[in-house]
């Protein structure tokens, strides 16, 4: 299997682990505050790594504006909606809704990047989409009581946030793909995108929460470690793997493979919650798996 596809699959594992780590801190801190803190830490880490590795030299004034827009669309908007949905509907529903970024990216790539999808690849994207819908509609057991499955607020609104996160992710990938193909360093590219998104979140945070009393009691050791861990694994490693995969892989295929988090997450949730996922969740994940396999084997 080519290195680009392996990187995209590795990113899906990172996203699954990061999503589980993010549940508690995102609910305690709020989506914007949680994202703001983790992006600040990760942007400083990525900028430091790219500086010492020399990857920052691949950045030019021509690519910086596009990377900035990609960061605003894919990370600032995408991740804010992602964790807003996570707070409301939990990691499983949020992850399968976020998997819609794969077909969105594949279809948009045809029109904006002139990528040609064979019929098997297009069919694979349809299978992924169908699997997501089945997992959402039939994935919850009636007796499920785990906090992983709890709905906080409106379920339709949470699912809408997941879809908007998927659209943001798709837009960010489409903007980044030509730059990565031209030779921009993946770590440096990720550093710029995350730094711009972090700056935007700090501006929004300062505007919306000006004068609001700060509750410092929420900053427990567990919350801090989970916030940083989610950022390092998901934003640091996961998004950098996606950027690396885009250096040689087609946007639609990379997006599809990096959306396999629901498949990875199901057995993890089974172990952590001690509750077996419903048959619909497994059926949806299986369809996503076959759709991904169809793209890999016949694309």
What can you tell me about this protein's structure?
With 299 residues, the protein is mainly α. Helices cover 78% and strands 0% of the residues. The protein has helices at residues 3-29, 31-53, 64-98, 101-112, 119-138, 155-181, 186-208, 221-245, 251-257, 261-273, 279-298. α1 packs across α3 and α7 crosses α8. It is globular, with a radius of gyration of 18 Å. The chain starts with a helix and ends with a helix. The mean pLDDT is 81.
Helical content stands at over 70%
User: What overall form do the CA principal axes indicate?
Assistant: globular
Mean pLDDT: 81
Main sheet makeup? none
Give the SSE layout:
Blueprint: H1 3-29, H2 31-53, H3 64-98, H4 101-112, H5 119-138, H6 155-181, H7 186-208, H8 221-245, H9 251-257, H10 261-273, H11 279-298
């Amino acid at each position: 299997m080519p290195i680009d596809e392996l990187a995209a699959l590795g990113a899906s594992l990172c996203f699954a682990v990061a999503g589980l780590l993010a549940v508690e801190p995102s609910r305690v801190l709020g989506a914007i505050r949680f994202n703001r803190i983790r992006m600040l830490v990760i942007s400083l880490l990525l900028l430091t790594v790219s500086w010492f590795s020399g990857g920052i030299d691949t950045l030019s004034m021509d690519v910086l504006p596009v990377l900035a827009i990609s960061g605003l669309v894919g990370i600032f908007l995408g991740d804010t909606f992602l964790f807003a949905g996570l707070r409301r509907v939990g990691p499983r529903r949020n992850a399968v809704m976020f998997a819609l970024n794969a077909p969105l990216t594949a279809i948009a790539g045809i029109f904006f990047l002139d990528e040609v999808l064979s019929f098997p690849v297009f069919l694979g994207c349809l299978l992924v989409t169908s699997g997501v819908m089945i997992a959402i509609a039939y994935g919850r057991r009636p007796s499920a009581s785990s906090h992983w499955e709890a709905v906080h607020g409106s379920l339709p609104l949470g699912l809408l946030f997941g879809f908007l996160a998927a659209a943001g992710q798709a837009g960010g990938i489409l903007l980044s793909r030509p730059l990565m193909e031209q030779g921009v360093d993946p770590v440096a590219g990720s550093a710029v995108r995350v730094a711009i998104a972090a700056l935007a979140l700090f501006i929004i945070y300062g505007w919306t929460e000006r004068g609001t009393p700060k509750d410092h009691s929420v900053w427990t050791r567990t919350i801090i470690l989970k916030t940083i861990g989610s950022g390092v694994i998901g934003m640091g490693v996961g998004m950098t793997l996606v950027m690396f995969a885009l250096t040689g892989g087609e946007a639609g295929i990379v997006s599809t493979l990096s959306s396999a988090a629901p498949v990875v997450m199901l057995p993890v949730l089974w172990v952590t919650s001690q509750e077996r996922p419903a048959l619909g969740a497994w059926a949806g994940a299986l369809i996503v798996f076959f759709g991904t396999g169809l793209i890999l084997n016949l694309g």
